[in-house]
Amino acid sequence: MTRPVTLFTGQWADLPLETLAKKVGAWGFDGLELACWGDHFEVDKALESDGYVRAKRALLEQCNLKFFAISNHLVGQCVCDPIDERHKSILPARVWGDGDPEGVRQRAAEEMRNTARAARLFGVNVVNGFTGSSVWAKLYFFPPTSQKDIDAGYQDFAARWLPILDVFQAEGVRFALEVHPTEIAYDIYTSQRALKALNHHPSFGFNLDPSHLAHQFLNPVFFIDEFPDRIFHVHVKDSRVQLNGRNSILSSHLDFGDPRRGWDFVSPGHGDVKWDPFIRALNRAGYQGPLSIEWEDSGMDREYGVQEALRMIRGQDFAPSSVAFDAAFAK
Amino acid sequence: MTRPVTLFTGQWADLPLETLAKKVGAWGFDGLELACWGDHFEVDKALESDGYVRAKRALLEQCNLKFFAISNHLVGQCVCDPIDERHKSILPARVWGDGDPEGVRQRAAEEMRNTARAARLFGVNVVNGFTGSSVWAKLYFFPPTSQKDIDAGYQDFAARWLPILDVFQAEGVRFALEVHPTEIAYDIYTSQRALKALNHHPSFGFNLDPSHLAHQFLNPVFFIDEFPDRIFHVHVKDSRVQLNGRNSILSSHLDFGDPRRGWDFVSPGHGDVKWDPFIRALNRAGYQGPLSIEWEDSGMDREYGVQEALRMIRGQDFAPSSVAFDAAFAK
Amino acid sequence: MTRPVTLFTGQWADLPLETLAKKVGAWGFDGLELACWGDHFEVDKALESDGYVRAKRALLEQCNLKFFAISNHLVGQCVCDPIDERHKSILPARVWGDGDPEGVRQRAAEEMRNTARAARLFGVNVVNGFTGSSVWAKLYFFPPTSQKDIDAGYQDFAARWLPILDVFQAEGVRFALEVHPTEIAYDIYTSQRALKALNHHPSFGFNLDPSHLAHQFLNPVFFIDEFPDRIFHVHVKDSRVQLNGRNSILSSHLDFGDPRRGWDFVSPGHGDVKWDPFIRALNRAGYQGPLSIEWEDSGMDREYGVQEALRMIRGQDFAPSSVAFDAAFAK
Amino acid sequence: MTRPVTLFTGQWADLPLETLAKKVGAWGFDGLELACWGDHFEVDKALESDGYVRAKRALLEQCNLKFFAISNHLVGQCVCDPIDERHKSILPARVWGDGDPEGVRQRAAEEMRNTARAARLFGVNVVNGFTGSSVWAKLYFFPPTSQKDIDAGYQDFAARWLPILDVFQAEGVRFALEVHPTEIAYDIYTSQRALKALNHHPSFGFNLDPSHLAHQFLNPVFFIDEFPDRIFHVHVKDSRVQLNGRNSILSSHLDFGDPRRGWDFVSPGHGDVKWDPFIRALNRAGYQGPLSIEWEDSGMDREYGVQEALRMIRGQDFAPSSVAFDAAFAK
Amino acid sequence: MTRPVTLFTGQWADLPLETLAKKVGAWGFDGLELACWGDHFEVDKALESDGYVRAKRALLEQCNLKFFAISNHLVGQCVCDPIDERHKSILPARVWGDGDPEGVRQRAAEEMRNTARAARLFGVNVVNGFTGSSVWAKLYFFPPTSQKDIDAGYQDFAARWLPILDVFQAEGVRFALEVHPTEIAYDIYTSQRALKALNHHPSFGFNLDPSHLAHQFLNPVFFIDEFPDRIFHVHVKDSRVQLNGRNSILSSHLDFGDPRRGWDFVSPGHGDVKWDPFIRALNRAGYQGPLSIEWEDSGMDREYGVQEALRMIRGQDFAPSSVAFDAAFAK
Amino acid sequence: MTRPVTLFTGQWADLPLETLAKKVGAWGFDGLELACWGDHFEVDKALESDGYVRAKRALLEQCNLKFFAISNHLVGQCVCDPIDERHKSILPARVWGDGDPEGVRQRAAEEMRNTARAARLFGVNVVNGFTGSSVWAKLYFFPPTSQKDIDAGYQDFAARWLPILDVFQAEGVRFALEVHPTEIAYDIYTSQRALKALNHHPSFGFNLDPSHLAHQFLNPVFFIDEFPDRIFHVHVKDSRVQLNGRNSILSSHLDFGDPRRGWDFVSPGHGDVKWDPFIRALNRAGYQGPLSIEWEDSGMDREYGVQEALRMIRGQDFAPSSVAFDAAFAK
Lengths: 331, 331, 331, 331, 331, 331
Hints:
Six copies of one chain form a homohexamer. Chain A has helices at about 15-25, 45-50, 50-60, 75-80, 85-90, 95, 100-120, 145-170, 190-195, 210-215, 220-225, 275-285, 300-315, and strands at about 5-10, 30-35, 70, 125-130, 175-180, 205-210, 230-235, 240, 265, 290-295. By secondary structure, chain A is α/β, with parallel strands linked by helices. In chain A, the strands form two sheets. In chain A, strands 1-2-3-4-5-6-7-10 form an eight-stranded parallel β-barrel, surrounded by five helices. A two-stranded antiparallel ribbon of chain A has the order 8-9. The first copy, chain A, is globular, with a radius of gyration of 20 Å. The two termini of chain A are about 30 Å apart.
């Protein structure tokens, strides 16, 4: 009702933006959150020529679509990660280069600085993304991972990201980490730790996606109430726990969509996220930005699902009250 | 009541075995499951001289303690793992060597073969342990880990462990993997996959420790009923989920004992494991081996706790019925 | 579907009735339950002149709105309560007078008798309201409150309300107590006690509002099944328990709308009330009166909310079956 | 969205088919599942004359209604049951005959063979129905019912139904047992036993109606995943557990619709069935047939309810995904 | 602590009473509830000769065992049941006779009258048992069982049992029906119906065994509070629900002890019965009789189990308070 | 195991201290927490003569009982409460005086100052007690209680208690409020508010009694972790929620012990308090004081219950670990 609803284009990169934008406009969305892959939003081209971003804007306006943020999860992931073959498939060739891990990480860092610059040129002030983490893979403590090891991971994160965030600040753009397993922050305690490692840099905050919290049994309301000023962007995505005593909450090395998994992503409204308290918490935090549907559900047709999700979230979004009820008792 | 109760010595390696054995005997345990670290059971010395194992046996008998298994988790872990600095702290210098990963893995494999040989000399037919895993660290699928990647991990596991298991078979000893996150098998589906990768090698089975299943929300009864012939050994250990909406089931990079963690180990009987159905399932499976207490609880004095755990499990262990009740109605 | 849906005007007294009635008619409500405060329905004016009630009726008819009940919670509250400063703000000056407690209580009692008379003139046969209670504030028993003390409270209630109820009976109007903490009856057992104290006076029954029962963990279905003939009116209002281990079900002296409270009112359909069994129980009880939305939600815009609530309750209200299914098997 | 939605006419046999078909077409259903009682579909008349089935087809086509299955629960029930007076009321006179139990059972068997023949003539390849059971009434084991007794019941079932199923096979029609208490199969284990007794006859499968599983606390998803190739037809019906500590899940000898019962049927969407995972499981199983609403709710007007149920199930039915999401990350 | 604990001998009929009594005395029980089968208590012999009951009493006294009740479930079952082959195995030959159903029922009725006479001779004033039921097997309503059918079942029950109960009354003995599926009463509503059918005959009450209520999801506390004056005897027995989404609460035609069943009997303290509120309810009801352990657990050695159960119930039984606490605040 | 267990004598004031102390010593308690009523500990007499406290000490030592705290709940309650007749019954005549509310409050304040003085003379440094509250009775907000009203209540509390606490500080004694409904603090948020109102006076802390938190659905572990330095004393008492859909969590104006109440006190170990995490939290907070059983259970004999409670809490109390487990892996 009150906030614009956009679609994150990351899972639609198999479609040219022009095709996608026409569909999305027709479905009644208010805007798009462009992914920096496929032909949706190319950072290098945006920096090369004025015409590129003008053309993107024109295309969106033609479809009656607004834009509030762009997203560069894939490159961001490579800033801190131990690099292996899997990263090659998510990077442009110019960032991957010869694949030497440290070289990849440094080129990824430079690309993120360029993403900030491109965002300003495009006219948005939020970039969503991932950070990677050098300690994620040591999650479960055997052989024992000491707090010294973990601390070193957070220092590495700060060392790599602070220079990036300074560029963001200079450009007037903010970076919104999507809190997520595999990242430097995946729950409230690790988010506190990440913020502390960065000395609470003003350009660093969160893209809150409740689907990554629900299957960890976190309450996204508590997350919003803990960091009300750091909610820079919001994803509308859902997940569902489907434990049966035989599978593990750790997913059993099974692909998404395998019904034997302990949890899975589902179309918003079909999962464990409780949207009413989520919206109330956003209202309390004064969040005015878009609700951006990131749609992923291995068991549902995506065009059907995304329209259903749009109706769902419009039905859930409501404005806070401006009346004190007890006051009405007095004349 | 009916099965011997032993103590796993792994968490007591700061004490010389002699000191420990006297205490354990006095507490009323039936035996010990010796860890292959500290001075408890040293594989190299066992192979070097007859006197070593004779002396160990004499010490235990003197304390009125039996022995059914030895355990070599630390070396086993290094057979398949990507090796990093943390592994150095859990290995004997001769296995670590120069720390070159592939060299470490091969020396670890040889040490496991020797462990089988030493076990036979010592007079037990079960070795408990870990296997490590080349794919554990790719648990959460981002960047996407394909099933091809995972399959490669299981093939690596089979390639490294089949030659070890053949030595076990030749020695008449069985290897019991403690099903556990960080290992090649951590739930029912991954245990099926591991067995399949090994073509169901007869010397490979499980050391069932329910504490590693409970916080994954697995039902250990279903595990026993799925693999009744592969339960080679049993640990009595407990864990407890303590979610509060702020922490994650993934543990928030917090140490054991930190009350903010989403789950933790606790003294047996204080956690989420339901021992009555566990014992019934062991009865159904015909498991006759020891119930071996592995005690770990960061919030309780260990000497108090281990005695309480002994009383708890003796109170829970009971023999199956030999009477059909309806039959009693007929004269 | 089958019952008229009205709006209770109590929380809208900041709007003149004319403004409100036009809105409510446009939203598609079937009628209004007028509050006896603001300018919505003034008991003294109704008794003074025929023109007053004719004008009210005309206004409602013009907006296509029916009327089934009026409500006088505020004055009713003062019949039995220990009076303090807070009561001044909810009373007309002529009832408050000099504020002497016993004087206030007696003037409130007289005003309730007049409310019955005004209701008949207006053409409705139900007055909803509160009763107050001299023992509510002694709820939690320390220092010990004896059953003798409590009994005295119910006798005081009977002594004050029986003469009022006799006037109701003479006028052909019924009084419907909104069962509610702070009142003489707030659950099934206290409702039984109140009815017994009144010797089951035929003019005394209940305005069932499930929002006041849900956070006490009462099942409103059991309430309806217990007192099917005493359900004189029904409010559609909702509440939600939001305990987090830190707050209390007793509300921590926090205002409505504070997210730290242990429970709060929410727009109907957003809370803990289960409407399907509620409607079935009303069907069983043969209740034919209005479903009157009392809307209070500190976190939602009220005009948005009240329309959503109207849609919700129309979607939930359904007629009972008139077919015996098994009969259809026989030809 | 993707599957046709039909209405099962069994509970509407008090209406002539012509009356019913017009209503159902107007409500927007895609088709009808005709019951073999009332005048809806009469097996004997269908076999007598070509004109009968042509007229039925014409009537349905005129109302824009398709047909995928017919149903003969009542006669099927009598094939294996111990026959008593209650069966008389559900049978045509020609099948009941003199009521001698074995004669009834044999005439019922012959009628089922004829039902297969009539189905082929009518142009559908599924017949839904019941089987009856000689051992259902010995459900609770006192006096002790031995496994020998139970086995005899399954052998009796096989002996009576195999010849029927052979006729089905010859006619190219399949029989779909509605898994249900009172039948030879009422959960997963008894369905396995029934299939085994029939040597997995290819013409025998299930009409999956989740309302009969929910109050037994079965998960219909597990049923579908267990027998994906045997789901021949699907009913959309719902039930709800309403235990209160005083009633029994065994229903207390109370009629449907009595609020004191431990469980009851309710309009689809008002009960305990979770439709989203149900649809996903049907998608996985590749089930392409109709979703047939069997409507029974003693507390709701049936014409209101059946239209609400149609909207509900259309909103829940969705097509599976044809995109692999991770693939979209790669260009 | 306060009530005697006895053992019901029904499941031990494979042992001669002498053997059993010695064991039971040695285990520390206070007494025995003798079953009227095996050689434990033979009604015909008790009526034949004075010596028989004197010898029984002497044997028990010698073992320091008291007696408060005898039990004749098996014969009682046959008073109302439709008789089939299974009943033969639970009856003495003289009652079974030629097996003609009505003859069996009448001989069973006569045997129950004799049981009352024998009880008086033996010196106890309670006989526990079953009643059978002509309508149990029509439990689930398909083909439709009408309330007329059910009413007929209760009238049959009354017609058969009232003459028996008159003999009980004449002998000063009371009959305690063990409320149980398969009997005329199996929950609160059917117990009300049974009492009403008997016009509340003073000699008819209940042997409350919570294990038969727990898996029906009844609360035994509500049962005691509903019928405080009709609790003539109490069994200490336990059951456990073990649903897994695949099995049914109706037990899947599986034997007791099969782990796939939806519920099973377990040793007292291992199941779903909550003993603390159970004891408090007995205290409220003023029940002073024995707590009689009926032990049945297909997964536990019975001699171990029965001793554990004795310790459990002694630890749970406590006397009510005789102090009003608030009174202690005043001097 | 590690902390002394004492008995609070408040509910035993009907017994002379000498009688009680002998019993308590014989039961195996370590000490007594004397109530300042009955003849247990009389503040006025303690201040009058040296001999009084010497005699008390001698009596306790003779029974082998230690003392760590005294308690004066009754007088403390009257410091802030609106005074009515019920307070007369809990006060010494000299404090009640003429019963004028403000006079009573001031004399109660003076008595609390004297209690601090007497505690020092007796040799304990903790006084447990209540504070009363002028706003408790305005708990549920109708008529609307504004935050201004509530703030005024906390200011009144500070104004009355700060001068008392200054005397405590001067005497080297601390006051421990038993957090409890009816008091100025009854949950975490009101405890924060109370501490803030007192500017965190160092002599003010809490006597943590989990029985008053459990039925409010507070987690006592969160309380301890919130105020680790303010836990001055601990009560071992338990309560149990017993909601049935008909009663209210607000207790329905029913006495303790009435089974219809929504919650009640029960003997420790029989209620909803989870003692294991409670003890762990005390270990974390470094609490070294006594565990003092306050025993109240209207359904159990108190002498039986108090001994059972002693065994229960001794079995639950354990010392924290002094070993870091992972360290044991390294040699």
